[in-house]
UniProtKB/TrEMBL annotation, chains A, B:
It comes from Allokutzneria multivorans. This is Hydroxyquinol 1,2-dioxygenase. Residues 129-157 form the Intradiol ring-cleavage dioxygenases domain. Belongs to the intradiol ring-cleavage dioxygenase family. Keywords: Dioxygenase, Iron, Metal-binding, Oxidoreductase. InterPro entries: Catechol_dOase_N, Intradiol_dOase_C, Intradiol_dOase_core, Intradiol_RC_Dioxygenase. Its cofactor is Fe(3+). Pfam families: Dioxygenase_C (PF00775), Dioxygenase_N (PF04444). It comes from the Bacteria.
Length: 291, 291
C-alpha cells in the first residue's frame, strides 16, 4: 500500500502475477520494469508527462488504413530493426541478413518472366539486377520465388502515386531458373524521406535528425525447405547510405550498382548505355539446420 | 553501419546526439536505451511486435474529447502514480502526500458554504467530512481553497450521468475558516471500475487484474505561499483498498469513515443517523522551504 518511487516497479509488476498466459505475464512484467526505470531516470514533470500522452494520442490519430505512424515510430527508434535482427539471430553466419519489411509491401507483386523489366514508366537510369539463390553450402536453389519492389527514380512507390504510376510499377515476382539464378531490368531507385507531416516528423526534428532512407530495392526470397529472407539491396553510392533513418543498412546488403558504358553489354541485357549493373546473391539457410 | 542487437541502443542513441534541445536529447536517448533493453529482454517475434503496434494504434483510436485511453494505460501501469510521486519527492516528510488527479476533474466545482452538502440527489449513506488545513509547523491556514469531487453511492461521477445527476453533484469548492477548518456533507462514495470496453480492459484481462478503484473523495487543497496538493481521502473499509488498479492508495490517505448511530450527533451535523464521519486533515508545505 505504500507506493514509493523505489518500490513502484515491484508493486506494479506483482499486480500481473496472476496473468493467465505465462508469455503475457513475462511481457507485462518486463514492460513495467523497463518503463518505470525510464521514468525514474528522466523524472518527467507532470507537464512533460502530459506532452507524452498527447504525443502518443496524436500518433494513434495519424494512423489510417493507408498510413501506420506507430510502425514509423518503431522504425525511427530502431525497434523494428532490432526485432527483425533478434528474430534472425538463430541463422548461422553465411545466410543473407534480414532487414525491415517497410510499409510498401501492401500489394501483391505481379508475376514476371526472368529478364522482364519492372519499370513500366521509363525515364530514369536503366538498371540491371542479377543474382543467384543458394543454400549456406553453396548449392543452387532452383524455383525460388524472388519478390522485388522499389521506389522509382524520384523516390516514390506506385501505391503513393496511383494517378501517375501504373499499378505494379517497380514490382515483380520472379522464379529462379534451374541454376538458382534470377535477373531483371528496372530503373535506379532514389533515396526518399519518410513522411514528416506527423508526430514522427516532430520527433526527428526534435532529435536533430533527417528523415531519409538511402536508395534500395526490397527483396523477399523464399525456397522450399529454407528460411525465407526479407531484405534490401542498398545502392552503395546512394545519399544517406551511412545514416538510414530506420537503421536498416547492413554491410552485407550494400551492393555496388556499377555504371556500365559499353553499348554491347547494354544490348546483351536489353537496356541502353549507360546503365547501372548490380549483382545481388542471396543465401538461404535450410530449415532443418535450425538450432 | 553494422546494426547488431548488442549495438542497437548505442547506434540509435547516437542518432539523437545533434538534438537542438538538451532535455529532448536526454529524454530521447534514455527512451532509446530502455526501449531497446526491454525488446532485447523479451525478444518479441515479428507477430508479437505487430500485435503491440496494433494495440497502441487502437489505444489512440479509443481516445476522444471525453475519453483518454493513454492516460488510463499510464494509470494501470502505475506510471501516472510514479510521475506524481517523483514530482512531490522534494516535499519534506509531514506534508500530505499527493496522488493521481484522475480524469473527472473536467468541470469547475461550484462554490459552496462550509457545512453545505455536495450531494444533490440523496438516497445513499449520509456522510460528514471535516478537517483542518495547516502548514508543516502545525499553523492553521485560513482561507485555503478546498476543491472536492467524488463518485456517488453507485460509483458514478456527475459528468458520466448527465441525464440523471444534476451538474455539480458530488462537487464543491470550499474556503477554510479562520482556524483553517473545513466541513461539508455528502454521500458515502462507492468503489468503481475503470472503463474496460477498450484496450486498457484487454490489458487488465491479460494481466489477470480487476479494474476497480476503492471508494475515495478527491481533494485539491491550495493556500497562498504553500505547495498545493492533489490527493484523495480513501474510505478505509472500501472494497479494493489493497488493490487499487491505478496504485493511488498511500497509507496516510486511508481514512476511517466511522459509522455513527447517535441521532444527536447526526442532528448536530445536519444529517440523519446512521451516518459516516471522516476527519481528513491536510498539511501543506510552505513554498520557501522548497529544496
Amino acid at each position: 500500500m505504500d507506493f514509493t518511487a523505489e518500490k513502484s516497479a515491484d508493486i506494479v509488476s506483482a499486480s500481473f502475477d496472476a496473468a493467465p498466459d505465462p508469455r503475457a505475464r513475462e511481457v507485462l512484467q518486463a514492460l513495467t520494469r523497463h518503463l518505470h526505470a525510464f521514468v525514474r531516470e528522466v523524472r518527467p514533470s507532470m507537464a512533460e508527462w502530459e506532452k507524452a500522452i498527447d504525443y502518443l494520442t496524436r500518433t494513434g490519430w495519424t494512423c489510417t488504413g493507408t498510413r501506420q505512424e506507430f510502425i514509423l515510430l518503431s522504425d525511427v527508434l530502431g525497434v523494428t530493426m532490432l526485432v527483425e535482427t533478434l528474430e534472425s539471430e538463430h541463422l548461422t553466419t553465411g545466410a543473407t541478413p534480414a532487414t525491415v519489411l517497410g510499409p510498401f509491401h501492401m500489394v501483391t507483386s505481379p508475376q514476371r518472366e526472368l529478364g522482364d523489366t519492372i519499370d513500366l514508366v521509363g525515364g530514369g537510369t536503366p538498371c540491371v539486377i542479377e543474382g543467384r539463390i543458394t543454400d549456406t553450402a553453396g548449392n543452387p536453389l532452383p524455383a525460388s520465388t524472388v519478390d522485388v519492389w522499389q521506389a522509382d527514380d524520384k523516390g516514390f512507390y506506385d501505391v503513393q502515386q496511383p494517378a501517375t504510376q501504373p499499378e505494379g510499377n517497380g514490382r515483380g515476382l520472379f522464379t529462379s531458373d534451374d541454376e538458382g539464378r534470377f535477373w531483371f531490368r528496372t530503373v535506379l531507385p532514389c533515396a526518399y524521406p519518410l513522411p514528416v507531416d506527423g508526430p514522427v516528423g516532430e520527433l526527428l526534428a526534435a532529435g536533430g535528425r533527417h528523415p531519409f532512407r538511402p536508395a534500395h530495392v526490397h527483396f523477399i526470397v523464399e525456397a522450399e525447405g529454407h528460411h525465407s529472407v526479407t531484405t534490401h539491396a542498398f545502392v552503395a553510392d546512394s545519399a544517406y547510405i551511412d545514416s538510414d533513418t530506420v537503421f536498416a543498412v547492413k554491410r552485407d546488403l550494400v551492393i555496388d550498382f556499377a555504371t556500365v558504358d559499353d553499348p554491347a553489354e547494354a544490348a546483351r541485357h536489353g537496356v541502353t548505355a549507360p546503365f547501372r549493373y548490380a549483382r545481388f546473391d542471396v543465401v538461404l539457410e535450410p530449415v532443418d539446420e535450425e538450432l
